[in-house]
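Re-running the complex after MR caught last week's input typo. The corrected sequence lines follow. Everything else is unchanged.
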Amino acid sequence: MTDINERDIAVFEAGIKLGALYHQFVGTPISTDTIDGLERIIEDSIGVQPHVRSVSVSIDREMVEKKQNPKFKYCELEGRMLHVSLQVLYKNIIAHVELVYDEALDYPMMSIKKIEKM
Amino acid sequence: MTDINERDIAVFEAGIKLGALYHQFVGTPISTDTIDGLERIIEDSIGVQPHVRSVSVSIDREMVEKKQNPKFKYCELEGRMLHVSLQVLYKNIIAHVELVYDEALDYPMMSIKKIEKM
Amino acid sequence: MTDINERDIAVFEAGIKLGALYHQFVGTPISTDTIDGLERIIEDSIGVQPHVRSVSVSIDREMVEKKQNPKFKYCELEGRMLHVSLQVLYKNIIAHVELVYDEALDYPMMSIKKIEKM
Amino acid sequence: MTDINERDIAVFEAGIKLGALYHQFVGTPISTDTIDGLERIIEDSIGVQPHVRSVSVSIDREMVEKKQNPKFKYCELEGRMLHVSLQVLYKNIIAHVELVYDEALDYPMMSIKKIEKM
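Corrected-run output:
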């Protein structure tokens, strides 16, 4: 096949970031009070990595409420609670990717949404 | 030996929190810009767990600066960067524990500082 | 209160190990085929840490089977799947602790089972 | 640009796996005795994930030996200790990717080595 190009690298780097984010933060103790702070720090932590153009994280508040242990008033961050939109810029290529909980498959699905030239 | 008492449980719970914190957050991408935010969210995340009375986290800024990759301008949170003071309250017992980098042993050392009755 | 003693430290160290184990390995991709291997490596990884006298890990096979994604044939290790028995030996004190899923509370409960002199 | 194609997805999935592996296992307590077992379980854990065709993990034994704490006889798995070769198969595209420690940059570098049609 043709050589590895900038588009390949942009998409590869975007995958790395989603995999990293997921396995770094899943398991973090969380309550409805700490959702906002955790969203911001996940964004900031991923944002310091190479080639990240933007990253937006939101955690499903309803799911946290439902999952909070009645006695202990907290739960753990799960993959299915995460909604992440991320853009990687490599050279002049932007890869838009997403992590969204797919209810039908019961699976936190990562996918490429768009690839564009700057 | 005598039965398990409240002092045992207070100290045990304090150990759990330090072990959890360490292995949840070590590896997080970090730069000097994200230190403050990461300190706060580690505190908040551990603070939602049972029996935590207070927790204070500071990350060694100099070490982060030194460890930041010159090209990519970030590094990863390491155990030796962490200074944590934590109090667990179980019934009327307070266990004060700490995670501090021990330079002589080159080891992130966890220890009990004080155990007191409220 | 009295000074920190060997019993305190034994119990504290045992807590550290359970917290560490939990937050290191929760989130690991797992299928029924990899249960045995993962149990062994969790034991081995915790076994290299200071003061661990013995550690036995079992992962709930039924829960893994039930949680495996029908399409992708795997799931992630969750705290509630873990059953851990751990002994810490500090000086001549042995602390026996456990991580067991408490169905009534729907919570992976860590507790001290016994403290004894060698 | 053109629509998202199978090549994009193969490379994206490969990135996800490397990012996941890295942030799941970095921090694991390790000694020279547990290297082999940890290599195998990392391979097995990543191998259960979708589209993984093959994965080979080796951990730098010399680095583990050098990093082992003299008193406590263990260290933690670091990114720079890892050498990973991974193939993702998506439809009829195989993406070959790698994680290798780049000594010059002092950085655990992830890269695409080859993309081929089956």
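None of the earlier attempt is carried over here. The mean pLDDT of chain D is 97. The interface with chain C takes residues 20, 24, 27-31, 33-34, 37-38, 40-41, 44-50, 72-74 of chain D (CB under 8 Å).
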